């Protein structure tokens, strides 16, 4: 992160109070328009978070990438931030993969990353295709007028089925774990008691799942929990049982609702750009490039990412103190005109495309290739099976799911 000079601190608004984190624009999954001004005028600015804490918003692409890789910044435990000084503060939960540091992070990532490489995940492509085809076929059969809702029929069930198949989560347990994942996606605006309750519940569920798998006998299953559990029991292995618990919690937090809402937003972007969608249908070899653009253009993560400064440093004239929260805004970085020509335009042929959808640096998202694969297969199946797909209602009239900061259409009525 470049250091340039020092100023007295953040500029308050006209009333002498800090600006709030920018509010979302109605019926738009992209970054709030306010970030365009911040990138130009205040690339580092102190803001008030929904939970009442303050943090330094970082909005430029170059600075966001640098922040994720900067050793002076660390991701705090979700269960221990903001820090509490009272003596009866509850013990923190196990760290998720994003929160692990040092040798612990290196050891766990060394064991888990090989399971998520592009080559290792090739076995999932035909399985994801079969799931997607089944969902589309069911929607078509149940429709008497060649119309349906892609959210209910496709974008909601597909990510959970993929997650369960890959990780080894029982689909029938979904009512036990899904509500807690939704709570944690809105953690930046919730009281610590709710966050801790959801984290403890997921941790308990993951531990119970591992108990069940241990009782089933040798870990010879092909799912990832079974494979990692076997590694944790191997003499000299890189993982502990707690690390496998953390893996389950991490996948539930990162692999479910984010993919549901991003897939719905990506399909809405295509449906509102019919010329580009037709071109993609006619030239399916461009789907992988299109997936990268959809990851850039439509935020995969519009929630607040919190890092904490380990030491004092200066960035763009602002003095950041040890202990301050630093908030790199991925969605803003992906619309930075200094990194992407005409950044607000959807261009499915855009290349190169150095987006930050999966973060950057040591904590680059482990499941990035699985997300790419899922979206790529979903697009291929839709374009093959429903080549004349189009919105059945005006985009501006669609209801929105705003239950988490990710935000997505609650319905996608289409005809084919």
From TrEMBL:
Report residue spans for region: Disordered. 1-20
Q: Does the keyword S-adenosyl-L-methionine apply?
A: no
Taxonomically, the superkingdom here is Bacteria
Q: Which CDD domains match?
A: CYP107-like
Gene3D superfamilies associated with the record: Cytochrome P450
Q: Does the keyword field hold Oxidoreductase?
A: yes
Q: Which UniProt keywords apply?
A: Heme, Iron, Metal-binding, Monooxygenase, Oxidoreductase
In Swiss-Prot or TrEMBL terms, this protein is called: Cytochrome P450
- Name one matching Pfam family: p450
Q: Which family does it belong to?
A: Belongs to the cytochrome P450 family.
Among the GO molecular function terms of this UniProt record, one is: iron ion binding
């Amino acid at each position: 992160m470049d250091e340039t000079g020092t100023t007295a601190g953040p500029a308050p608004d006209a009333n002498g109070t800090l600006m709030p984190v920018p509010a979302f624009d109605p019926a738009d999954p992209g970054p709030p328009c306010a970030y365009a001004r911040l990138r130009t005028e205040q690339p580092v600015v102190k803001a008030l978070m929904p939970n009442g804490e303050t943090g330094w918003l970082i909005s430029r692409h170059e600075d966001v990438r640098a922040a994720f890789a900067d050793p002076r910044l660390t991701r705090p435990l979700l269960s221990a931030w903001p820090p509490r000084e009272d003596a009866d503060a509850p013990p923190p939960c196990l760290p998720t993969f994003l929160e692990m540091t040092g040798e612990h992070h290196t050891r766990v990532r060394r064991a888990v990353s090989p399971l998520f490489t592009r080559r290792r995940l090739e076995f999932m492509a035909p399985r994801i295709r079969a799931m997607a085809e089944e969902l589309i076929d069911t929607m078509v059969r149940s429709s008497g007028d060649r119309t349906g809702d892609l959210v209910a029929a496709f974008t909601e069930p597909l990510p959970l089925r993929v997650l369960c198949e890959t990780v080894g989560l029982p689909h029938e347990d979904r009512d036990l774990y899904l509500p807690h994942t939704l709570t944690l996606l809105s953690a930046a605006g919730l009281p610590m008691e709710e966050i801790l309750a959801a984290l403890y519940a997921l941790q308990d569920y993951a531990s119970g799942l591992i108990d069940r798998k241990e009782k089933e006998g040798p870990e010879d299953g092909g799912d990832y929990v079974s494979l990692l559990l076997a590694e944790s029991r191997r003499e000299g292995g890189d993982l502990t049982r707690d690390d496998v618990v953390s893996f389950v919690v991490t996948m539930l937090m990162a692999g479910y609702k984010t993919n549901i809402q991003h897939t719905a937003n990506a399909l809405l972007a295509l449906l509102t750009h019919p010329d580009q969608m037709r071109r993609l249908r006619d030239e399916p070899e461009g789907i992988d490039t299109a997936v990268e653009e959809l990851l850039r253009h439509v935020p995969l993560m519009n929630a607040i990412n919190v890092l904490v400064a380990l030491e004092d440093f200066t960035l763009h004239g602002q003095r950041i103190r040890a202990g301050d929260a630093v908030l790199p805004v991925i969605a803003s970085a992906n619309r930075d005109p200094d990194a992407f020509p005409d950044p607000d335009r959807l261009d499915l042929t855009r290349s190169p495309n150095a987006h930050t959808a999966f973060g950057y640096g040591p904590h680059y998202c482990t499941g990035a290739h699985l997300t790419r694969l899922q979206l790529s297969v979903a697009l291929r199946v839709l374009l093959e099976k429903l080549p004349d797909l189009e919105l059945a209602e005006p985009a501006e009239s669609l209801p929105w799911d705003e239950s988490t900061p990710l935000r997505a259409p609650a319905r996608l009525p289409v005809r084919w």
